[in-house]
Amino acid sequence: MHIRNGLIAGLAALAVGLASARAQERLEIFDAHLHYNQEPTPFYSLDQVREVFRRNGITGIVATSRPNKGTHELMAAKWSELKVVPFIRPYRVRADIQTWFNDPTTLELIKSEYERGYYRGIGEFHIYGKAAESDWVKKMVDFAVERNLYLHAHCDEEALLILFRHNPKARIIWAHTGFSVGPARVAELLEQRKDALWGELSYRGGITGSNGKLTAEWRALFEQHSDRFLLGSDTWINERWFGYDTIFKEYRGWLAQLPAEQARRIANGNALRLFGPRPGE
Ligand SMILES: [Zn+2]
Q: CA–CA separation, 87 vs 85, rounded Å?
């Protein structure tokens, strides 16, 4: 009898141990679409931002902000638990979203920011349809290619193809993966642009149904292309900072429905591969 009780107690202890081991194995997440905007002050202080990242298991970010001061602050913070990958935001104020692609001062802004020496990309920028054909957009794409910078483009499919036409060597992270472009077309674009196109999934529709379950289309897309997707919070307004926990709870909800290898790639493996040291570093 005593032996049996001891065995049950032992098994119970083992179960508790396994549960906590599983909790410790919580997926690390890289937030590849983060804005730490300052207009004129940020929603959260740096200390609060750090706590939000800790709470959500965020161990890496693509840092951008409008103006770029927020990115400078995140870089200067040097938190040991967080990898910060800074991108140049080509905007000073919100209204630049409408005009930057025809504004010669945009390139000046990009060039002067680039002098800081630590940037890995340009974006997020917004561009739709034929507006992408402007000379200033081409100059920016060429600037990025010459310096091995990624472009983080919030654009429709037409503009995406124009960006690649400007310079076939462009490497583009497609913000929101086209929002609603059909999964079959997304797959086609990814296949045509190997090592040049990745999909970032904030605000992307259709991944799960109303019950929170992965849809068949997206399950199939991840099965084929789990090496091409990134997660993002897109904290473009204060409400997104306020809802940060919910955003990542939802991501974790569908990541848990994928095979572990696929989930790990999308959660942070792809970002670590993309933003690892540059050749020569
Ligand atoms: Zn966007």
A: 7
Task: Give the type of residue at 1.
Answer: M
DSSP structural state of residue 57 = T
Asked if 208 and 183 touch (Cβ cutoff 8 Å), the reply is no
CA dihedral 99, 45, 271, 274 (to 10 degrees): 60
Distance (angstroms) between ligand 1 centre and the Cα of 9 equals 53
How far does the centroid of ligand 1 lie from the alpha carbon of residue 65, in Å?
Answer: 12
Distance 157 CA to ligand 1 centre (A): 14
CA 126 to centroid of ligand 1, rounded, Å: 7
Alpha-carbon radius of gyration of the chain? 21
Name the burial class of residue 73, with classes exposed (0-12), middle (13-18) and buried (19+) by CB atoms within 10 angstroms of its CB: middle
One pLDDT digit (tens) per residue for the chain, 281 residues: 455 555 555 555 555 545 544 544 799 999 999 999 998 899 999 999 999 999 999 999 999 999 999 999 999 999 999 999 999 999 988 899 999 999 999 999 999 999 999 999 999 999 999 999 999 999 999 999 999 999 999 999 999 999 999 999 999 999 999 999 999 999 999 999 999 999 999 999 999 998 999 999 999 999 999 999 999 999 999 999 999 999 999 999 999 999 999 999 999 999 999 998 766 66
Centre of ligand 1 to C-alpha 32, Å, is 12
What is the model's pTM?
0.90
Residue 241, CA distances (Å) to 65, 101, 238, 247 in order: 13, 28, 5, 9
CA of 38 to the centre of ligand 1 (A): 17
